[in-house]
Design brief:
The chain has 610 residues and is mostly helical. It is built from 26 helices and 2 strands. The termini are far apart.
């Protein structure tokens, strides 16, 4: 496809403005590590919420989401439970409060706050830093795969070349170029630059979503959609089997469903629910989402920020997903039928090429590039903190000048990007990377990070053992069962990690009681803390222990339904299922009222800055 000069000008203009904006605002970021990585805790929560939403609106994820909507229809609303998408609800309801009360810089530094600075605490600190770095490599590879595949369809220039016997494809060249631009403004501006540009990117992306939704709604009728999809495609609910047969509609889709391993959707959702509870209770992994929480001014603002992220992200994103999905189903299916072999992950860029008019193409491409750059920038700003703050500053040069740490953060960003790109050259499909990150890698994180919140006797050696066992299992188990979908390997990885936790707890002494009392008093989690709670109360009879478990559980359940309505309402609108849309609107209003009454209005009661 050849973009018009107007569209190319819009995209290039956006890139120039982004770089300029990032450099202009960088004066706020260079004073010290807290200013560089957390914005000095001076950024308003609503900007952080918009930034967080923009950071979750990436090209690779959007391409994947359009693909699964095209193939699975309404049942695709359940597949994001792989992450799980509702881990944000857990963060919103209570985990953001607990995390922000720590007043630390990174997730790894939080481990020292929880376990102390003895030998076990240092081992735990190092292992979570290693996990953070490995996850960044995985995500950079994931981004690399998506942005290259996306850009090649739109930009007219052949950028393939050979370097030292290595053939670089045009797809890889575009990915390298866009990643380089993003890395430059992120390194220069730190958290201030990331948030400022992501707010701009979110505005562009949201406008783009409504433009796509309007075009799709005007261009496709309910009768055309019904003719293009097999029976069951428009059904949200399911039995044990998917029961979706594309024979007679489009060749190759049944093979896609078989290769994804989603035919037994009932078992899949049970596994996603099982995995999701552990992954959500574990809290956000040490990346951009945790960094946004730690960047807020107060614990209450951290909770509000997480809620705003869900509210502003889900509806516009799925309006775009559903819009592109129905356009592709109606107008691209005949073209796909002629192609024989279809790369379903190119549905999104092909839909943009066919259906978006001149001028709006440039705006939409700028928006999608903004989504990619926002997500990538968020990772590249968050990850160096683990190398500089948690390794270099803690173990090598604890007394260096603040400017030195910022300069080393620049170098750490470049190092992480280069290594991540190396893995990106050998990545498979977006879907395979998604499944490995969500099911295997995060599976190794869950056990130790659930226990760290809720059990006083869970010690630093247990954390180290659980994380080490989980990392090894998440790498080795998928190699031992190459033909098994990663989500079904989660129980093996989880049990292996729990075994590592148990060994560490049995053979390691309890952590320093003073450290545990300080952690419990400041964080105030619910769970199995009775011995520590009694000592804290003995020292401070005015302390109010957290007795909100059942209210938090209620709010989480309501929040998951609330989030699901935000996801399915734009889909029902696009496919003209107005009865189901009305039900979704009613559920959204009821759950919004309940969350306002039992979550939002009570934040002031338990979210004081410490």
């Amino acid at each position: 496809m050849n973009l018009s000069n107007l569209d190319i000008g819009i995209v290039l203009g956006y890139l120039v403005v982004t770089i300029f904006f990032g450099f202009w605002i960088s004066k706020h970021a260079s004073s010290n590590l807290k200013a560089y990585f957390l914005g000095g805790n001076q950024i308003p929560w609503y900007y952080l919420g918009l930034s967080n939403a923009s950071g979750m609106f990436d090209i690779s994820g959007t391409m994947w989401t359009v693909t699964i909507f095209f193939v699975y229809g309404l049942k695709s609303a359940w597949i994001p439970w792989l992450w799980p998408v509702w881990n944000q609800v857990f963060v919103m309801v209570f985990l953001a409060l607990w995390l922000r009360r720590s007043n630390v810089l990174t997730g790894a530094q939080w481990i020292t706050f929880r376990f102390g600075d003895g030998r076990g605490g240092r081992l735990s600190h190092i292992i979570v830093t290693v996990f953070a770095i490995i996850s960044v490599f995985g995500f950079i590879a994931y981004f690399f795969e998506g942005i290259g595949k996306f850009a090649t369809i739109f930009f007219p220039w052949d950028l393939s070349f050979s370097l030292g016997g290595l053939d670089i494809t045009s797809e890889q060249s575009y990915a390298l170029l866009i990643i380089a631009v993003t890395t430059v403004y992120t390194i220069k501006g730190g958290m201030w630059s990331v948030v400022a540009t992501e707010v701009l990117q979110f505005v562009i992306m949201t406008i783009s979503c409504f433009v796509v939704g309007w075009i799709a709604f005007r261009s496709v009728s309910a009768e055309q959609i019904d003719a293009a999809v097999p029976p069951g495609w428009k059904d949200l609910f399911f039995g044990w089997h998917l029961n979706l047969d594309w024979d007679g509609y489009l060749t190759g889709v049944n093979e896609k469903i078989a290769s994804d391993g989603f035919e037994l959707i009932g078992l899949l959702v049970i596994m996603m629910l099982f995995k999701g509870i552990f992954a959500s209770l574990a809290g956000p992994v040490p990346s951009y989402d945790m960094q946004r929480v730690l960047s807020t001014r107060t614990p209450a603002e951290a909770a509000k920020m997480s809620g705003l992220t869900i509210l502003v992200l889900m509806f516009p994103r799925y309006l775009m997903v559903a819009g592109f999905g129905v356009l592709s189903l109606v107008y691209l299916t005949p073209e796909f039928a002629q192609m024989g072999v279809v790369d379903f992950e190119t549905v999104l860029p092909l839909a943009i090429e066919r259906f978006i008019p001149v001028g709006f193409q440039g705006l939409l491409l700028a928006g999608l590039l903004a989504a990619f750059m926002g997500t990538f920038a968020a990772f590249i700003n968050a990850a160096p903190a683990y190398l500089v703050n948690d390794l270099y500053k803690k173990y090598i040069r604890p007394d260096a000048d603040p400017k030195t740490y910022v300069r080393y953060s620049y170098l750490a960003s470049i190092f992480l990007v280069v290594i991540g790109l190396f893995f990106g050259f050998f990545a498979g499909s977006i879907n395979s990377l998604t499944l490995w990150i969500t099911s295997a890698l995060y599976g190794g994180y869950a056990a130790a990070n659930v226990l760290k919140w809720i059990w006083w006797r869970f010690n630093s050696y247990g954390y180290f053992g659980g994380m080490l066992a989980g990392l090894i299992a998440s790498t080795v188990v998928p190699l031992l069962f190459p033909d098994v979908i990663a989500i079904y390997l989660f129980p093996i990885i989880l049990l292996t990690s729990f075994a590592g936790c148990a060994i560490g707890v049995l053979f390691g002494a309890p952590d320093d009681e003073a450290v545990l009392m300080n952690f419990y008093r400041q964080t105030n989690p619910w769970g199995f803390w009775k011995p520590i709670r009694e000592k804290v109360l003995a020292a401070n009879p005015d302390f109010q222990p957290n007795r909100d478990f059942y209210r938090d559980l209620f709010n989480v359940l309501i929040g998951i339904v609330w989030q699901m309505t935000l996801l399915v309402m734009p889909i029902y609108l696009m496919i003209r299922s107005y009865t189901e849309l009305a039900v979704g609107v009613v559920l959204f209003l009821v759950t919004s009222f309940l969350l306002k009454k039992y979550w939002y209005e009570r934040l002031k009661d338990n979210a004081q800055t410490t």
